[in-house]
Write a structure and sequence with these properties.
Elements lengths: L14 E5 L2 H5 L3 H4 L16 E5 L2 H4 L4 H6 L1 E6 L2 E2 L3 E3 L6 E2 L1 H12 L3 E6 L5 H6 L5 E2 L7 H4 L3 E15 L15 E5 L3 H15 L6 E5 L2 H9 L5 E5 H10 L4 E17 L4 H17 L1 H9 L18
Parallel strand pairs: 3-7, 3-8, 10-11, 10-12
Antiparallel strand pairs: 1-2, 4-5, 5-6, 9-12, 9-13
């Protein structure tokens, strides 16, 4: 999409400053996100590092006209999956490393972002229906989703199990028969644990009791409280939960089945997908990408080449 009839992108350049170091403020949020506590959640943020992202004229020229006219991207997000995306204590502001990355990418495109909380399993349908311009919520790219929408890779994560410190219920991810396991609804981990439970039953053992939660924070809290014996989630989420609970949790085994996260865009909107991929690439090249990941402590999942609809193995 061109920008004919509008001021040249260079004439509309403006610096955008995105706060990094939100992790420091976010560490105090876990108890609040799980249904308690209070406070403003912003203590110390004024002294956190910042990154300035300037609009790039060439990248902005890639943006379809309808989004240039709007001047923003409306983004569907399930803000309950720290550290990828979650609500600050004010209950209004979405934060997380995925949020920082897409905010910075939009800045390269000379666009603002408007984040709209949504149930995770309504994000893809919301993009398809035009409710959201982009879906961003630690969405793993797989063949089923690629049949429904365009996806732009920008990060890679595996699955990690975790349990109470000391593993009091002796959970073995490879033999969790008879255990109670928590997962967030509609994630790839649901099918993972279902397949494990089916194998238990096929082997003549008790199946796994699978507790599905709309919000990851509630799934995590169920393990902290002892209601469930273990949980599994994306690697950065599991690591973040262990860190935030102050020694109440520990990871089990190694991560597995690493796969890329993708920004979700409508199938009919390949030009926007290409623009976002180019913006992510620019962030990698100028160092902004690595700075954001390092600030959140999730640099292990960094990738080097964002792509639209990358090949993935099922």
């Amino acid at each position: 999409m061109t920008i004919a009839g509008h001021p040249a992108p260079a004439a509309r350049r403006r610096g955008r400053i995105y706060r990094m170091g939100a992790l420091a403020a976010g560490l105090a949020l876990f108890a609040t996100a799980c249904g308690g506590g209070g406070g403003d959640g912003d203590a110390g943020q004024e002294t956190t590092p910042k990154v300035e992202v300037e609009a790039d004229a060439e990248l902005a020229a890639m943006v379809p006209q309808e989004y240039r006219d709007a001047g923003k991207l409306v983004i569907g997000v399930n803000a309950e999956y720290p550290p990828g995306e979650f609500m600050k204590a004010d209950g209004k502001t979405v934060t997380g490393f995925n949020v920082d990355l897409l905010d910075a990418a939009a800045g390269k495109l000379d666009l603002e972002t408007e984040w709209k909380p949504s149930p995770f399993d309504a994000i893809i349908t919301g993009v398809q229906a035009g409710k959201f311009d982009v879906g961003m919520s630690s969405v793993t790219i797989n063949e089923e989703r690629l049949e429904q929408v365009n996806m732009v890779s920008y990060y890679s994560a595996g699955t990690q199990w975790f349990t109470q410190k000391g593993n009091p219920q002796s959970v073995d991810p490879d033999n969790a028969c008879g255990k109670r396991v928590a997962v967030q609804k509609a994630t790839i981990q649901v099918e993972d644990v279902k397949e494990r439970s089916e194998k238990c039953v096929d082997d003549g053992k008790a199946g796994i009791t699978i507790e599905q939660y709309q919000e990851q924070t509630h799934a995590t809290e169920s393990v902290v409280s002892g209601k469930n014996d273990a949980a599994l989630a994306d690697t950065p989420v599991a690591g973040y939960a262990v860190k935030q609970t102050g020694g109440k949790l520990e990871t089990l085994g190694e991560q597995y089945e690493s796969a890329p996260y993708g920004a979700v865009i409508n199938k009919d909107d390949t030009e926007l997908a290409e623009a976002i991929a180019a913006a992510y690439t620019s962030l990698i090249e100028d160092g902004t990408y690595s700075s954001i990941l390092e600030e959140w402590g999730v640099e292990a999942g960094a990738i080097t080449t964002p792509a639209v609809n990358p090949d993935v193995d099922e």
